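cache lookup: miss for this entity combination. No prior model stored, computing from scratch. Input as submitted by user K.M.:
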Amino acid sequence: MSERRAGGVMAEPQMVNKVSKPGSTQRPTLADVAREAGVSSATASKALSGRYGVKNTTRLAVQQAADRLKFTPNRGAQALAIGRTGTVGMVTHDLEGRFSIPVLLGAEDTFGTNKVSIFLCDARGDSIREEHHVSSLLGRQVDGLIVVGARPDPRPSLGNLSVPVVYAYAPSQDPQDMSVIVDQQGAGAIAVEHLLDCGKKKIAIIAGDRTYGAASERVQGAQEALAAAGMAPVIEPLFGAWDEQWGRGAIKIVMDRVGKQGVDAVICGSDHIARGCTDTLRELGIDVPSEIAVIGHDNWEVMTEGSRPHLTSIDSNLEKVGQRAATRLMDATLGRAKPGLEVVSCQLVVRGTTVE
Amino acid sequence: MSERRAGGVMAEPQMVNKVSKPGSTQRPTLADVAREAGVSSATASKALSGRYGVKNTTRLAVQQAADRLKFTPNRGAQALAIGRTGTVGMVTHDLEGRFSIPVLLGAEDTFGTNKVSIFLCDARGDSIREEHHVSSLLGRQVDGLIVVGARPDPRPSLGNLSVPVVYAYAPSQDPQDMSVIVDQQGAGAIAVEHLLDCGKKKIAIIAGDRTYGAASERVQGAQEALAAAGMAPVIEPLFGAWDEQWGRGAIKIVMDRVGKQGVDAVICGSDHIARGCTDTLRELGIDVPSEIAVIGHDNWEVMTEGSRPHLTSIDSNLEKVGQRAATRLMDATLGRAKPGLEVVSCQLVVRGTTVE
DNA sequence: TTGTACGCGTTATCAA
DNA sequence: TTGATAACGCGTACAA
């Protein structure tokens, strides 16, 4: 089976040496530019980096020489000279998952392309591997570190390193560390408020895995918001897993306990759960959202768009988490570190499971 | 809504300067180690890098001194001296998607942790942004580049750069470039062979988006395998989209045209399609797999595990693609470049939609 | 076996 | 305004 190969597409790589003359493709150096422009490398440096103290005409000459030679400064040499590399390390534990990537993209956006580059490593949930990656990144003289957890619960601190560290998604257990997390309680409250806005009054809660802090925080936020409206869930919140199967099973429990008339909306701990829940309701012949509305968490497009109808969900704003982490890291490298927890609020995304 | 914040969790970051004495946390240098060990920095260098020509006792002394000072060599300075950085750039176009990540993980595994680090950039399908990232990475003196496409169709070459480039998942249009891709035709053939093994004889094909080469390659591979068995699809392959909705619609078309008795297996162009197909069959009261078997492509766990029954699918071995890309890139940096296309074969993963 | 001296490509200091 | 010169941290001939 593993040797199966299609006809025309295949081509065996041939042994040909492509980089025959290593010196021929040599990148030009600042000295080359200086020579080309007829100045010293010191002035060439100043001219290109836009510092004061260089005549406009010579600056132009240097720049043109640089263009002619397609010169790009060697960031490694710059780093050695100025003491900063313009790189940061990102250690993640959830690369195959769906939380790290938006955080990474948000961070990448915040660090401009040419300013800061990101070393990405995945530690696969293993603390030994995490330490290896961290020390490897420190050896590369990164200016800072962003650590992204696989789940939102607090995690051990890396302690005091030689560069600033920001913990994203999963906060550090040390409150003096810099952490950026998602407002899980707020998400629960947003869900309730939206359902109340829709005129729903009999709300059930199907939560996720009870061992995750996020599961109970979302529930707590929802319950507080209900209480603020003088209400309560129609049934004790059900904890289980994060997947569709649990959603399918849990909604049956709800129907068994309170019946079709006893509930007009369900808050689900994840989009997986919400999808399982919605599928089962359709199979039971119950209309979503007119009879029972459903709302999920995480706003994961694969789930929200595959569902019938499409899922209303609460976006965790993970790009924003990445942006804030990057911003605080840059501030810290400039000596303006702001220790402590920062909470990014979530955002409602309305689709078919709560409004027609 | 966006200002929603939960009660106890929140904490406003305070203005405190954590990196008060920048010089105090200074990393030790090789010269420090040498002084500590009472030798010159040249011998210290040799001792630590394990080269010949240094007495065993002094080597030990140097190593202990290094340990005592927690010395880690400055990779940037090493790079400047030896001419290689031990870093590679990875430019992706599908980070939010699901193809780049496995490729990245495979590459990361192949480059050991301490040997090579990866700069990751996402160009978001924009060629301008891609160029920016590439030149930025070249400025950082990466030893090589891996370019990962968003879809498996051939893409424009970056041309001749100062470092080797490997194209992964999406090959370069230039056959002289190094490319590593997935054997899409082989995947189609694997699907057919498995269904034949299951005793199925009336096979329909629901393909993906016809504008993707992968869609028609998978179909072609399947048709060739059928032909080799003296068979043909029971209906002309249907092209459409990659999503569940298309799967739901297409299976209805199949049933309309050939009826429940006219088909006993369906090959779907993606797991999304396969899931939509399976869901609809269940709603129609048709048993999967006993009456009609279903097989998907890509082996994406979210889809395969959420489905009832779980989806049989064909894994594209993307980690392997990443591994091969990394290996060829390393070979190329050693002067042993093997230009041309390399095809990685796929792998069958059997689950409930083809066997009880 | 060890140490001296120089180079890698850039920035920073200071005298011209 | 410019240009020698000395760092930055490490590898490496070459000489001792």
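stored under new cache key. The longest strand of chain A covers residues 87-92.
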